[in-house]
Task: structure prediction
Amino acid sequence: KKADSICDILLSYKGTDPEYLRLKGYLLYENNDLTGAMKNLLLSIEFNPDDDLSYYYMARIYYKLSQYDKALNYIKKAISINPNVPEYLSYKIFLMIIKKERKEVFYEIKNALKRYSDDPGINYLAGFFFSQTKDKKKAINFYKKSLKYDSLNSNKWFELIMIYESLNMVENAEKCFEKVIKIDSLNASAYNYWGYMLAERGIKLELAMKLIEKALQIEPNNGYYLDSMGWVYYKMGEYEKAKDYLYNALQVLDSDPVIFEHYGDVLMKLGDVNRAKEFYKKALKFDPKNKNLLKKVGE
Result:
């Protein structure tokens, strides 16, 4: 209640004190009143041109408005006033990544890491940057360093999992899944992703089934999880059971090309070639450039 009354006082403030104006601007920003936030932050800057925090919040507003050039200009101004805030450097790098300034990002990250080698935000952005390049292995150590200081961040663990999976480093990915589930034992997405990763490779299928069963216990009508279970049964050679799960998945998700393709694969195994091709064609409607599907339709 005390905090609420303080917020009310700030929101009703009409004076010219730049710190109060900045705080009011921040509160309005948090309440998604971007116009009101901008008005107060610009007033704060007018009365105190060296208020780096106001420039930082202005950068965040323009990011929300998808005006990345303006956002970048404001964060650069914040850095010019106070160059010793790693969060400002992180935000600048983040905006540069969005603007796809790849060469500039590389040098910015390099210089930032020289100054703040242990900063979790900068290491995360370095990891994310390299994860988008051909040199994905470089990303791993940056993610690990970031997670050392932010070990309960499931999203970062998931991003590291995606890198390991893309490099076919399955055991490493599995260790990360264990971390995610330890953070949140009801993370259905983690159980499903882990199980599907194993099923795709045709390994540890019994474990894959148990993992996806767990996901379905949490979200029984999730079409993606139903598809995953169907795919496990397909890999086990139990095509009728696979067909049932995939049919149910299609009742929930009728625009996912992967599920249509999976259903076609099952029908093909059951000898129903014509219907299988019908489902491959349905998949192609949503993924018309898929070479594998084009090949299956033409066979």
Observations:
- The longest helix spans residues 34-47.
- The chain has a mean pLDDT of 93.
- The radius of gyration is 25 Å.
